[in-house]
Structure formats: C-alpha cells, structure tokens
C-alpha cells in the first residue's frame, strides 16, 4: 500500500535529500503556504520497507493522511 502525507517545509529540497535516490519515484507537489503533498507508491514502500519510509518521514514535519495526525520531526539525538 502506498503512503500519502502532507509535508510542511520552507525548503522543498530537504524532502528530496531525505528520500535521496528514491525521490524520482515519489510524487511531490506544492499545495500552498509552505505545504507540499507527498505520495509514496507501493513500489517504493516495498523497495525501502515501510519502517524505513516512516523513519524518513519522521525527520520531517508532516501530516499522515492514514493516521490523521501531525507528526513533528524527531530529534536524531537520544538522551538516556
């Protein structure tokens, strides 16, 4: 199953860098006011793995259409 999300960013190139070589297979389009639509097809999800796709999305401020909630970027730093 594909994954759809809305991404909030001031720098669209950031999304491109997050998905790296898979960005060409992803539909990425402007909405308005710094929001962008992101549609990740099943083929990309199957290649990367669902967990990896959600891991990449976790680095972005995004709204998951499936869960219906905003997700803020997770810090790369872990404090124990």
Key words describing this protein structure:
80 residues; alpha+beta; 3 helices; five-stranded antiparallel sheet; 5 strands
Give a verbal description of the structure.
The chain is globular, with a radius of gyration of 12 Å. It starts with a strand and ends in a 9-residue tail after the last strand. The chain has three helices and five strands, in the order βαββααββ. The longest helix is centred in the first third of the chain and has 8 residues, at about 10-20. The relative contact order is 0.25. The chain is about 30% helix and about 30% strand. The chain has about 80 residues and is of the alpha+beta class.
Distance between the termini: 35 Å
> Runs with pLDDT <50, length 5+?
none
The strand line-up of the biggest sheet is 2-3-1-4-5
Coarse morphology: globular
Helical content class: 25-40%
Beta strand count: 5
Estimated radius of gyration: 12 Å
Biggest sheet descriptor: 5 strands, antiparallel
Q: Write down the secondary-structure element order.
A: EHEEHHEE
The helix count comes to 3
Average of per-residue pLDDT values? 88
Strand content: 25-35%
**Estimated structural class:** alpha+beta
